[in-house]
Amino acid sequence: MAMNLRIREDQQEALKLRAEQEGRSMHAIVLQAIDRYLEVEADRESVRRLGAKYALRHADLLRRLGE
To answer: InterPro entries in the record, alphabetically (predicted)?
Structure first.
């Protein structure tokens, strides 16, 4: 699946400059940014899910610690 990505002119200029400095394409940098975002968000979701699981499992202990 293909998509068009519209970014502000200032973003495009900054991206172009960064790509030139790194000797990479703008496309490669955008793909890397997307991959990093997806990885971070997946990690955050795992932490939220595990936090909720253990908060429920240890609710009594957490309540006592809060007293």
So the answer is: Arc_rbn_hlx_hlx, Ribbon_hlx_hlx
The DSSP line for 22-62 is: HT--HHHHHHHHHHHHHHHHHHHHHHHHHHHHHHHHTHHHH
What's the pTM value of the predicted model, to 2 decimals? 0.67
Residues 6+ apart with CB under 8 A from 7: 15
C-beta of residue 29 within 8 angstroms of C-beta of residue 19: yes
Contact, 20 vs 29, CB < 8 A? no
Residues 18-55: tens digit of each pLDDT: 999 999 999 999 999 999 999 999 988 888 888 888 88
Residue 29, number of CB atoms within 10 A of its CB: 15
